[in-house]
Input
Amino acid sequence: MSRQPVEPVQIVRQRRDEALNALVDGVPYIRFMGIRFDRRGDELTAVMPFDQKLIGNPILPALHGGVTAAFLEVTAIVVLSWNIAWDRMENGHRGVDEWDGKHLPKMPKTIDFTTDYLRSGLPRDAYARARVNRSGRRYASVHVEAWQDNRDRMFAQGTGHFVMPTLDE
Amino acid sequence: MARQFMEAIPHSRELAMDLVSIDNGIAEITMPYDEKLVGDPSTGVIHGGAVSALMDSCCGAAVMSHPSSPTGTATIDLRIDYMRAATPGQAISAVAECYHVTRSVAFVRATTFDDDRDRPVATATGTFTVSQPREKPAAETDPKT
Output
């Protein structure tokens, strides 16, 4: 039996990093919020470094509730898009080199998003991970957890439903 | 007072939110279109997160203006349903109504529109904490606190 040749690690890494950058860098709102994504294999962690402009209550001080909701929703959309892109890459549909500022992959559309505020967002960096609980042909359900200093003390969690993008092939 | 209320909140100021009206548990806030809020560069439609920020601010303002005059509020839960994409280039405005308040919780619903007032962009329902002014004598307060 013949085995497929193993791809050099730097080729694989470059393809994955480029795909992730294509999903994130082209979106002005993600840049405005200062959100970036760390990747370990297929696992993404969203990072939102603290910035004064994210404050909603200057007396406490605390992050704006809308900032928390936005952080969770951005994480859900990017992770869902990333899962779709990952499956395509692993199945040999490359096409990632065509993703640039003008030709981005189609994104899932939010149907609804619910944010559960567990404690007030501190003026610190925030982190979030999303789990795609169901990803069908038309709809997806995604859960997100966000924390700050301590992974075991979430400051917010959220659930959203999304309409899946139509694959253009 | 209304202008200062928005100016005092860094994130609301950053998004150029403007308090149009606030009275008796109902608030309206408008937010101009801005390229930096775009969530889908291929269409220019603003990101749902920016709509969330507007709705959350508006709901909080509605709670603060309720006749029970709370001294403070924070979001417990906020659900947003997205009906359609906001038209690129148009300002969006949210109208929120705080329709019930208990001693500790405020219940709020909100709707966001663009120029077409007949077709909402998004709706929201939320619950908020309510801080009441201290009025009980010290002896009646919880001994644990």
User: Anything to note?
Assistant: The radius of gyration of chain B is 17 Å. Chain B has one domain: 2-140. The first helix of chain B runs from residue 2 to 7. The interface with chain A takes residues 8-12, 14, 35-42, 46-50, 52-57, 60, 74-82 of chain B (CB under 8 Å).
